[in-house]
Amino acid sequence: MNVKRALISVSDKTGIIELANGLKDLGIEIISTGGTARLLGDKEIPVIPVEKITGFPEMMDGRVKTLHPKIHGAFLGLRENPEHVKQAESMNIQWIDLVVVNLYPFEKTVAGSDVNLEEAVENIDIGGPAMLRSAAKNYRHVAVVTDPADYPVILDELKTGEISLETRQRLAVRVFRRTADYDSAIDRYLSETLMDEKILRLHYEGGETLRYGENSHQRALFYRDRNCGEPSVADADILNGKEMSYNNYIDADAALEAVKDLPSCGVAVIKHTNPCGYATGKSPAEALERAWAGDPISAFGSVIACNSRVDLAFAQFLKGKDVRHVGYIVRDGKMLPQDLPGKFVEVIIAPGYDDEALELLSRTKALRLLRIRELKDYTAELLTFRKITGGMLQMERDLAVMESFQVVTKRSFDEEKTALAEFTMKACKHTKSNAIVLGRAYGSGSFQLIGMGAGQPNRVDSLRKLAVIKAMENLQIEYDACQPGESLIDYTRKAMGEMVLASDAFFPFDDTVRAAAEYGIRYIVQPGGSKRDQDSIDACDELGMAMAFTGMRHFRH
């Protein structure tokens, strides 16, 4: 498609002088409006004011200037249609081959805290969307640009002689996406301002077909939010491995969100969106080893996120055989340790990989290696959405951990136990309700999730049947490995006494406190807020336990 005439009318002047100069050098005639025409004229770029084409001056404070047959006919006419050509000639309509238009900044205007209705309405563009839609409809004959980022592409193709059909098609689609988003923003604002009615319209792109959904009989697509400024698995670079699956994305997102909460080097090992392993360390490898040790059986087939760059030691740990006892089997009525050879994981997410680590991990062809942006200096998304049949739920994201740390018992927390309580509550926050987790310190400022109970109808079961059992299994493995000079029972109670138990919600009764005490647990952190809080406080004081309230619940359904 050869370009002889172009119309330029832009609110955002970014890059417009360079584009117009390029068009001038190619001998392309330029038509323009208002402020754009004045700007080009000031830069000594020849321009034809739009009123010379229409025969009418811009009027009504610029509200009416391009809504004219000589403009829209020049966009919409089909060049191969003899009747269209005849009508254009009889009306002295000359074709316009290139349209460069962007819109009044309505979204930016209404985002201001002090905007009023009159100002918002004046920033509703009428002529701009009309021109964009007219030109995009006729993409076979007209190229239309609304994003300054596309200016270099247009100039490069024009220098070769013409703008390709493929480019015109792509630009036309972008136009209709832009006008759809623009109209949606106007709808949202006016619906709330004039009708007191909130409207939700979401925009996601890509539509990547996944192998299947949560189960093999379900079809699935994955869409991306191109406007998200927060590091995410959605915009990660896939450096190695098979394509991501539906479940991979769900678990990878859960893993990444968990390590975002850790201020120091940390790792989350996720299985079915729950952290079966969660730890901090002096290095990525140390954090991984501790996280993996929290539940090595569940870690098989897991998704792992690290908030620091993956080094060779990290990769070597995953590649090495797991020689620790990681579980138990019953044989002849006895609990015997069971070995698990090797470490199989589905996905690793990290902000970077050292060359040696990437080379070693990439030897596993199916292992998906995702590289995200650095986890610093970003603005977090504030809202999250969840679809239910017939509706959509919107809520603020759960980005905080504690509102306060109020010790409510006679026994207190020292500095290390306070830091451990915060870590353990972070693990609890990322665990499905009803959640009970046990955390412990294993070095200066390093912490480990050692027992996790998730998704139970009551939190006493989460404690007794899951979190404590897993912690005791891990402690018996340690006991067998080092054979300290004390009984297993004494060793276990001593270790449990140094742990912190975190609950995602308050205790409605004192039963959880008393159950924890049976295992030697002496430190508890929970939101508080129950009508029977005093019962739990009294039980802690009776049993010599410390408890702190955070004032913040973390249900996760």
Give me the secondary-structure topology.
Blueprint: E1 5-9, H1 16-25, E2 29-32, H2 34-42, E3 48-49, H3 50-54, H4 69-76, H5 82-90, E4 98-101, H6 106-111, H7 117-122, H8 127-137, E5 143-145, H9 151-160, H10 165-195, E6 205-209, E7 221-224, E8 237-240, H11 246-260, E9 266-271, E10 274-280, H12 284-293, H13 296-299, E11 302-306, H14 312-319, E12 325-331, E13 334-339, E14 345-350, H15 355-361, E15 368-371, E16 383-388, E17 391-396, E18 406-407, H16 415-429, E19 436-443, E20 446-453, H17 459-482, H18 488-496, E21 500-503, H19 511-518, E22 523-526, H20 533-543, E23 546-549
Parallel strand pairs: 1-2, 1-4, 2-3, 4-5, 11-14, 14-15, 21-22, 22-23
Antiparallel strand pairs: 6-7, 8-15, 9-10, 9-11, 12-13, 16-17, 18-23, 19-20, 19-21
Helix pairs in contact: 4-8, 8-10, 12-14, 14-15, 17-18, 17-19, 19-20
**Whole-number count of domains:** 3
Radius of gyration: 32 Å
Q: What is the number of beta strands?
A: 23
The assigned CATH architecture of the largest domain is 3-Layer(aba) Sandwich
How much β-strand is present in the residues? 15-25%
Relevant CATH superfamily of the largest domain: Methylglyoxal synthase-like domain
Low-confidence stretches: none
Helicity, as a percent range: 25-40%
Global shape = elongated
Instruction: State the end-to-end CA separation.
Output: 55 Å
Q: What is the residue-averaged pLDDT?
A: 93
**Total DSSP helices:** 20
Task: Give the C-level CATH assignment of the largest domain.
Answer: Alpha Beta
Structural class: alpha/beta
CATH topology category name of the largest domain: Rossmann fold
Instruction: Enumerate the strands of the largest sheet in spatial order, edge to edge or round the barrel.
Output: 8-15-14-11-9-10
Oligomer classification: single chain
- Give the biggest sheet: 6 strands, mixed
